[in-house]
Amino acid sequence: MVNLPWAIIVIHSTLIASVLSNFVAAQQVADSIHSVAPDSMASPVPVADTSGTAPDSLASRRVVSGSTAPVVPKSDWSAEFCVGLEFSAIDFAERARFASDLASEASISRWVVDQPYPGSDIGPTVGLEFALRRKEWFRLAAGGSWRTWSAQAVARDTASGSLHDRSYGSDLFLGSLGADFLVSRSVLRLDAARDAYLGARWLVGAGRLSGTGDAWGLAMGASMRAGAEFLDWNRWAVSAHLGLDWLSVQSQTPWKDLLKASSSRDLAGWTGGGLSLGVQLRWGAPRDSIPGKAQKK
């Protein structure tokens, strides 16, 4: 007769050995699979086709991948740097004072004015500007500029034949703050240009007027302009504009210190605005990478 407790122990031992052998075999299979295709480079696993048609090569495959880098959205703002040159027809009303002073001196000294002051003044302006652009809407700008103009007159002494020259000149050192409002291409389309804009600047700085002496004063004014870009390449763009400036300077120096034959104690003040034509070279984000910017046709 078989001893029952020993039979139970033998059966239990047989079952345990069978379970362990199956577990070891399964572990060996799993290890071999991992050694061939690790998790980080898992092969695509085909998905069973239940529609009865051939599976699509992209839509019917599922790829096990690792973590992906986060997508950083582009900023709506971009920076621009600009250098500009413009020429202005200066509205210098005080030219008449210098012409009158020369006429008085010539009358007293018995001179003949061979070369009077010109009837107009053309002055160049050079400047730098930094702008922050918001998509296709507008850009905020701040910068600085230097404007200058001068003129000369020549008189001749009738007795000795000697020549005498008189001159005036002005320099304006200005800071600017303003904005350009970009005109949508759906509103205004220019065949040879892009990025049409209307701009405004507030101007403040110092001015100098020279004659027989120098006078310094506070310069203030404003500028309006309309322009567009005509050339662009990668990060560079060339734009042109028409402008209208209003500028005035007030000093604490009397006119008698600036004019040879004047005794006026009125404080010298002068204007320096006028119509202008300018060109600018801009550097900033590539034109076609600006958020919301339409591709150039």
What does this structure look like?
The chain has 297 residues and is of the alpha+beta class. The chain has a single domain, classed as Porin, CATH 2.40.160. Helix content is 16%, strand content 50%. It has helices at residues 4-36, 95-109; strands at 45-46, 61-62, 77-90, 111-115, 121-134, 138-157, 163-182, 194-210, 214-233, 236-254, 267-271, 274-284. The strands form two sheets. The chain has an eight-stranded antiparallel beta barrel. It has a two-stranded antiparallel ribbon with strand order 1-2. A hairpin with a 3-residue loop joins strand 8 and strand 9. The longest helix has 33 residues, at 4-36. The radius of gyration is 41 Å and the shape is elongated. The relative contact order is 0.15. Mean pLDDT is 79; it is low at 1-10, 36-45 and 47-66.
Largest sheet: 8 strands, antiparallel, barrel
Fraction of residues in H or I helices: 10-25%
The helix tally amounts to 2
CATH class: Mainly Beta
Q: Total number of β-strand segments?
A: 12
The CATH topology label is Porin
Shape: elongated
- The CATH architecture can be given as Beta Barrel
For the biggest β-sheet, the strand order reads 3-5-6-7-8-9-10-12
User: Which parts are unreliable, with pLDDT below 50 for 5 consecutive residues or more?
Assistant: 1-10, 36-45, 47-66
Question: Outline of this structure?
Answer:
Helices cover 16% and strands 50% of the residues. With 297 residues, it is an alpha+beta fold. It has a single domain, classed as Porin, CATH 2.40.160.20.
